[in-house]
């Protein structure tokens, strides 16, 4: 857990954090990106739960499957079809991250998708604020952006860029605040505004304790889940884009954050960060989580695991 503390500096310390903490966080995020190389793909199922995301989910998954390599898709689908998923009858393993609080028991086994580490692609890098600010980030500028990054509009990368810009521009639902951070500085600014200028905060992430042998398998809860007590949280999800973009958001309604030790059937181990959204009454009825869990908005809390490269910011109690 990387902790951010206030500095006592004057004008030169407007970010509100000490130099040492700043450098530690940069190293933390860079290690996450380098250790968990990710393809230029989308994980819209975790960008909860803005605007019409549920209505667009089918298009998003189609685009994601197009971008993913055929070998990766065959591996996951083959493993997926080899298991009985009881009430979860979907055929895309990428959406198998949702569960309910009734599942938070030692010995509970469930199929979970964690993106496997792939060091071969060059991961998108975090840009400094000045550099990120010099590049337009708007769907109106998409034709120019595609030329700038040398992607055609019909290419998988071009469609992923269009989807990212659209999701970032969608209006938040009632009680939600959202922001797409194109630099570390802007991410920290948004988080600081969420918690208050005088509040220290830290970041927690999912950790792969072993090199995952497969992206999708049955996992068993090995220990009693540990709740991380926090009055508010900010979740930041990676977005498919030529450089690193994080979709950050928080809700005014109650959320619970957990660390859960999981053991895979292949021997893999994951210390997973999970969040349970206690009030889903404002979510789109078409959100994929309701389809997976076969529940309706506002009936039960919806929980989900975070991939390793996603971030959860929480206030730090003294």
UniProtKB/TrEMBL annotation:
Signal peptide, first to last residue: 1-37
Q: Where are the stretches annotated Disordered?
A: 56-80
A Pfam family it matches:
BURP
Provide the BURP domain boundaries.
98-316
Q: Which PROSITE patterns match?
A: BURP
Q: Where is this chain compositionally biased, Basic and acidic residues type? A: 67-79
The alphabetical list of record keywords is: Signal
Name of the featured protein? BURP domain containing protein
